[in-house]
Design goal:
The protein is built from eleven helices and 36 strands. The chain is mainly beta. The protein has four domains: 9-135, Immunoglobulins (Immunoglobulin-like), CATH 2.60.40; 150-453, Transglutaminase-like (Coagulation Factor XIII, Chain A, domain 2); 491-603, Immunoglobulins (Immunoglobulin-like, Sandwich), CATH 2.60.40; 609-702, Sandwich (Immunoglobulin-like). Strands 2, 4, 5, 8, 9 and 10 form a six-stranded mixed beta sheet that branches. The protein has a six-stranded antiparallel beta sheet with strand order 19-18-17-15-22-23, sandwiched between helices. Helix 3 crosses helix 5 (248-257). The longest helix is centred in the middle third of the chain and has 15 residues, at 266-280. The chain is elongated, with a radius of gyration of 29 Å. Mean pLDDT is 92; it is low at 463-485. Residues 258-350 form the Transglutaminase-like domain. The active site is at 266, 324, 347.
Amino acid sequence: VLPESSLKVTGIDLLKSQNTREHHTDGYNIESLVVRRGQPFQVQVSLSRELKAADKLALRFSIGENPMKNRGSLLSLKPEREDFNGWKISVVKRNGKECLLTVTSSPNAPVGKYNLHVKTGTNIFKPENGVIYLLFNPWCEDDTVYMANEAQKKEYVLNDTGIIYVGSAYNIYDRPWNFGQFEEFVLDACMYLLDKSKLSLSQRRDPANVARAMSALVNSNDDNGVVMGSWSGKYIGGTSPMDWIGSVTILQKYYKTKKPVRYGQCWVFAGVLNTVMRCLGVPSRCVSTFDSAHDTEENLRVDIYLNDKGEKLNISFDSVWNFHVWNDVWMKRKDLPDGFDGWQAIDSTPQEQSQGRFQCGPCPVKAVREGDVYLPYDSKFVYAEVNADRVYWLVRKVNGKDKYFKLGTETQDIGKNISTKAVGENRREDITREYKYPEGSKEERKSMERACSFLRPSGLMPRSGYASTMQTLGGNIQPLVPKEPVTKTGLHLKISNTEPLHPGNPLELAITVKVSTPGNWTIDLTGSCQLQYYTGKVQANLGTIKETINLEGPSETQVPLKVAPDAYMKTLSSVEDEVLIIVTAIAEVKETNDKLTKETSMRFEYPPITVQMPETAVLYNDFTCAFIFKNKLNVILENCKLLVEGLGIFKMTTFDMGDIMPGKIMKSEIICTPTRLGQKKIIAKLISNQIKGISTEKAITITE
């Protein structure tokens, strides 16, 4: 009998369309096969002759620079034998020279980019494109990122568009954002970041390590990561943070140049990190907190300094951001005691260093709620962001020296309206209850006490850049009490706008002073109006009022505060960021010495952009999309640009509009060719010298 000719592989088919459909990876715009771990995929091998029992056939998967069996970076899989790393392959069917195999990776396999070779005896076959991307798998029960709810997976893993909530607690608005995790080069950019992270292979098994590494790499601090942060107000040599409408351009540019992209602020970092985590297969959502504390000392206190006119001073180390955006990622925490699985906060905005790098999280959201702030990672910082107290100090010159007088403490002000986009619909979902118990509840008090036992308690001393050289206030310096007593007069302040806040019009504001205790009360009221960045940094002082009011309790009165357009329009058009209007009021009751401070930030209101297009369109058939904007303001909008992007429809496009006069209507059209099925969104944003924040989105369904 002639010896068998040696077995050779003549071809291999990775059955991309079937495998990617089953693995929910058919969206990725990439040549290679993308699959999720812990779930079988099929491979068709063509051989030089029929496979015999004695033949040796092995699929070899390798990862990294220098793959070796003993390091787990080279897996050699033989049919019907479970490999030591939890991978296995089996023969599904043989048909002459064709052999159909199924490969199941371990649900705990390192994520990344694998190369597939086939070994038969001493022959090794290297396919043309044998690269396989292996991702986390929220559909697999044994994966640490497993998520049971189908609608949630559709939102938190597969949705490539979304909404980031910004503004202020007084008026929250939505900023549409294209995550675009399936776009060209985005997955490659994520793989590049994984390699750059220097995580070991075994660290790549655990989503907690990967999430922490990505929170460090999405900012450019320490490691030449993706986005360079800047809050300077001038963005020469880069793109202003307000001008991005999605992550795609940023990640594509980064992958091409391997250099940080300029510039980002918190929503940009959160948008990009959300893209990266969804792209790698970890369920992820953008989370916005309003009145978020940036507490540098972990003493659960943020000091705010006011002058005699009630104007905020920029002298504090701490700050309260009107809003701050971070991310929650979903996973089991194998490294922690039971009870801390589920959502974990991660934050790539460079605020404070953690273990020597600008990274933050994953911190279990449940640990924040329960006050277990000793748990890794960075739970003290996240806890303070949503739970600190705001302490107001009045700075007065006494004999030429600054003296500090405590005006009051706001205990329920920080960490309000914690928001994310709802699953499957375009509305804001309030998730404050996941982060904290109701203010004043028994559970909240217990959680606060627990947290305080791990944080250093602080005496109430002012702490500004100058405080150390000053004499501190005498009087009641006491550790923080959970709640301050109510004033004797039942004094209450409310700040509102009486007319819409349109740029170019006077700002018509009002402070309502209310007393609920019977009696005749004399109240000194100081009010100020300022423009500030969302980070709490004051940009301009617009005006102040000082009045003495007599009130017969119980009653209330409204004191107007009016700012002329000339007082603020220059500032508005000279900065490249969106600024907020902030009103601060101080009331002092003469008879009882009661003091109260109240602060409210508001956003300018803008005319809308209208998008006109059909509700449905057919794949690869052109349709026209028109963007219409009418300048209903009393000011010229200078240097207008319209930015538009539609994932699966058209690439990011910019229209230069020049100046738009008051009352003028502008219209731009774009011819669209849809390349993907399903519901797609078009995002449009208008920016000008005067206005930074007008954006809108519209959905269209693409059918076959």
